[in-house]
Design brief:
This protein is 30% helix and 17% strand. By secondary structure, the chain is of the alpha/beta class. The protein contains seven helices and eleven strands. It has helices at 9-26, 41-54, 80-87, 118-133, 170-176, 195-199, 214-222, and strands at residues 2-6, 31-34, 62-65, 67-69, 99-100, 139-142, 164-167, 189-192, 203-208, 240-245, 258-259. An eight-stranded parallel beta sheet has the order 5-3-2-6-9-10-1-11, covered by helices on one side. The protein is globular.
């Protein structure tokens, strides 16, 4: 695990973007795992800049998003499908057929029996199979929740889990309520890649900024590998890079850090 600390958010986004761009230039048909939330926005802005100013070509890139809220249609303003469209896809030359985002709508599915509902199970298996058919994810971008979650793998998630439905913790719902009119509008369930799925990516790039993420970052990097801090599993990944600003790195021991 490589931990890089940059002074500010903009600096860490530039470093992260350069890593992605370097991989894409070497492999034009890169399979890219994408995250949502406020943290990767600066990275996506940098990728857009590379496309506009340097002609970076995304036409052969294949993408897989980590997660999506259950119950929000793709056109909903807070769906992750809309997020990716407005924050990245509308601004680069990616082929729509190469974009994969988990499905959030399942008709009359019994919300209390997601794990056994045939429609949900079939979709989760299909999503895993699509990743395999694409050759696996080359580089997976991640954020981290204040409770140490990656994607929507909340504390207590199986470290070998695959794509499935998860119930969101109240902390996660409170953290995400800033994007909605009220916490009552925040969905209670999401479909997410599992930790086992994420760990199969050839490379993982986790971004975190701000002091609010500092404790989760410390537990992920310095603490034991435990299901109670899902991001700690990245300690076991063969090629993981953590890029932080000074706030997110503020609780780390110096020996874990490479300063940018």
């Amino acid at each position: 695990m490589l931990v890089i600390v940059e002074k500010e958010y903009a600096d860490m986004c530039r470093v992260a973007a350069k890593m992605v761009v370097d991989r894409l230039r070497k492999k034009p048909n890169l399979v890219l795992g994408l995250a949502t939330g406020s943290t990767p926005v600066g990275l996506y802005q940098e990728l857009i800049r590379y496309h506009r100013e340097d002609g970076l070509d995304f036409s052969k890139v294949v993408t897989f998003n980590l997660d999506e809220y259950i119950g929000l249609p793709p056109h909903h303003e807070q769906s992750y499908a809309t997020f990716m469209k407005t924050q990245l896809f509308d601004h680069i030359n990616i082929s729509p057929e190469n974009i994969h985002i988990p499905q959030g709508m399942f008709g009359e599915v019994n919300i209390t029996a997601f794990e056994t509902d045939p429609a949900v199970t079939a979709f989760c298996h299909w999503y895993e199979d699509e990743i395999k058919r694409a050759g696996g994810i080359d580089i997976q971008i991640l954020g981290i929740g204040g409770n140490g979650h990656i994607a929507f793998n909340e504390p207590g998630s199986s470290l070998g889990s695959r794509t499935r439905v998860k119930t969101l913790t109240e902390k996660t719902r409170r953290d995400n309520a800033r994007f909605f009119a009220s916490i009552d509008e925040v969905p209670r369930y999401a479909i997410t890649m599992g930790i086992g799925t994420i760990m199969e990516a050839r490379e993982v790039l986790l971004l975190a900024n701000g002091e609010g993420k500092a404790e989760a970052v410390r537990r992920s990097i310095e603490g034991p590998v435990t299901a109670m801090c899902p991001a700690s599993m990245l300690q076991m990944h063969r090629k993981s890079t953590i890029i932080l600003d000074q706030g997110a790195a503020s609780k780390l021991s110096a020996e874990f850090i490479t300063y940018g």
